[in-house]
Amino acid sequence: MRESGVKRPVPRADAIRMDIRLSEVISALSYALDVTEGQPMGHAVRSCAIGMRIGEEIGLAPEERSSLFYALLLKDAGCSSNAARLSTLFGADDLEVKRSRKLIDHHRPGASLRHVLRHGRTRRLAAIARSGADGAREMTELRCERGADIARMIELSETTAQAIRSLDEHWDGGGYPYGLAGDAIPLFGRILCLAQTAEVFFGVGGPRAALEVAADRRGTWFDPELVGVLRGTRRDRGFWDALGGAEPHGLIGAFEPEDRVQRADEERLDRVAEAFALIVDAKSPYTGRHSEGVARIATAVGDALGYGPGALRDLRRSALLHDIGKLGVSNLILDKPGKLDAEEWRQMRRHPELTVRILERVGAFRELAATAGAHHERLDGGGYHLGLTGDQLNRDARILAVADVCEALTAERPYRGALPPDEVRAIMRREALCPEALSALEATREMGVLGVATPTTAAARPAAR
Q1: Under a CB-based contact definition with an 8 Å cutoff, are residues 304 and 443 in contact?
Q2: Quick check: is 7 in a domain?
Q3: Residue 7 is among the residues annotated as catalytic for this protein
Q4: Which of 3, 5, 19 lies closest to 363, judged by CA?
Q5: Of 239, 260, 281, which one is at a domain's C-terminal end?
Q6: Smallest Cα–Cα separation from 404: which of 367, 362, 437?
Q7: Which pLDDT value is given to residue 185?
Q8: Dist CA 232 CA 211 (whole Å)
Q9: Which residues of the chain have a pLDDT value below 50?
């Protein structure tokens, strides 16, 4: 196998894996949440540093700081759940709409109107107007509740979940989704709201812009006392200079209370992978439970090929996380009912590369990154994103490609309906997929399952299809 190919992951000893800090895994994966929100990579960890500095200044106990720490890192865990609706409502790139919305004060009608006029397509303006505050509240509720559920899934504290659930509430009661005001908003939710906004403006204009927006929205968006605490850091050049460094990921380790460090054993790493697979699949209504389906098919094939428990676990994690790069792709592209143009196709082809970039940051998943990113490669070199050929692809990558195609063909897509089993088999045999993996798939129950599901009828499909 050539050096540039995808090598078989080498299983690590359980003792080494047991020593993994959960914070290292979550902070690295938070970069995937950043791109979903249209933010530069590092937004969540910089927000975490700002929020934790506030927590230290107000004297939070170690257990409280631990709950706040994870809430800050996972504040955007539900952000993919409203992407499709936002894109449909505006008829625009959801990533750009989210990015620009974070820079406006939508308490001010003029600012909101300018945002709508800038990003909403003319034919969508009436729909945006009808949606109004109720639509914004509903989308925010979906995002916040989903984020809180993700935190619970990873077995984080209920305090962490409640902070995520309330991060978009405002001090004066004008926030979403429940219109909480003042001390009725959980303290950590108030810190999240302030920290994330300060970070966005820090990215645009440095410390001065961050502190100015905090002062400007004091008493409306933000708890006045917390604003005073944040502004008290203005002379700490060391803190703000470090926040602007090229690699913020290394900055936040010092903020996690050492006596409250949480470890990630094999079972917890599985739950993290499962949670992020749900985040990925929530990005588009047409992916449903795609990642889970690919993982199920891949492990069935691996089992048929004689994989042991450790190898099956690695294969399953690769499958669960293979599409994490799609979080950085606009829903205008993911959900487009027609053929992609050249530029749209170029952006779509970048998602495996982004998958690799994200997973390489995660020590626990680094050895799986190249395999996960190779799910669109083909034996004849006609795949993407690297155009690898058969002798450059390990067995896991070959299995993943087969599982991905199998699941995708049997699911609804914006440009076609689900395909019947016989057509799925015919298409897969024409693709430049691994014959060994295809034969193993044919021998598993998974191919039999294809015959059970009835494709959605044309009458029941959305009109755009």
Answers
A1: yes
A2: no
A3: no
A4: 19
A5: 260
A6: 437
A7: 98
A8: 10
A9: 1-4, 12-16, 125, 450-465
Residue 272 and residue 179 share a domain:
no
Q: Which amino acid, residue 424?
A: V
CATH number at residue 399: 1.10.3210.10
Spell out the SS3 assignment of 270-337.
HHHHHHHHHHHHCCCCCCCCHHHHHHHHHHHHHHHCCCCHHHHHHHHHHHHHCCHHHHHCCHHHHCCC
Residue 459 has what pLDDT?
29
| Whether residues 63 and 81 fall in one domain | yes
310: phi then psi, degrees, rounded to nearest 5: -65, -45
Q: Based on the structure, what is the number of domains in the chain?
A: 2
Residue 117: the pLDDT is 53
Residue that terminates a domain, selected from 260, 292, 319: 260
On whether both 247 and 359 belong to a single domain, the answer is no
Q: Are 300 and 445 in contact (CB under 8 A)?
A: yes
| Full domain range(s) for residue 345 | 266-456
- Whether 235 and 311 map to the same domain: the answer is no
Looking at the fold, whether 194 and 303 belong to one and the same domain comes out as no
Give dist(CA 239, CA 30) in Å, integer. 21
Position 15 in a domain: no
User: Which are the contacts of 331, defined by CB distance < 8 A and separation ≥ 6?
Assistant: 83, 84, 86, 87, 88, 93, 94, 283, 284
- Whether 178 is covered by a domain: the verdict is yes
Q: Report how far residue 40's alpha carbon sits from residue 34's, in angstroms, rounded to the nearest whole number.
A: 6
Does residue 72 lie within any of the structural domains? yes
Check residue 280 and give its pLDDT: 97
**What pLDDT is attached to residue 105?**
79
Residue whose tokens read 């926030």: 175
Q: How far apart are CA 27 and CA 29, in angstroms?
A: 6
Out of 7, 102, 326, 336, the active site residue is 326
| Residue-level pLDDT at 444 | 87
pLDDT on residue 88: 82
According to the model, what pLDDT value does residue 71 have?
98
Residue-wise DSSP of 4-71: TSBPPPPPPPHHHHHT-BHHHHHHHHHHHHHHHTTPPTTHHHHHHHHHHHHHHHTT--HHHHHHHHHH
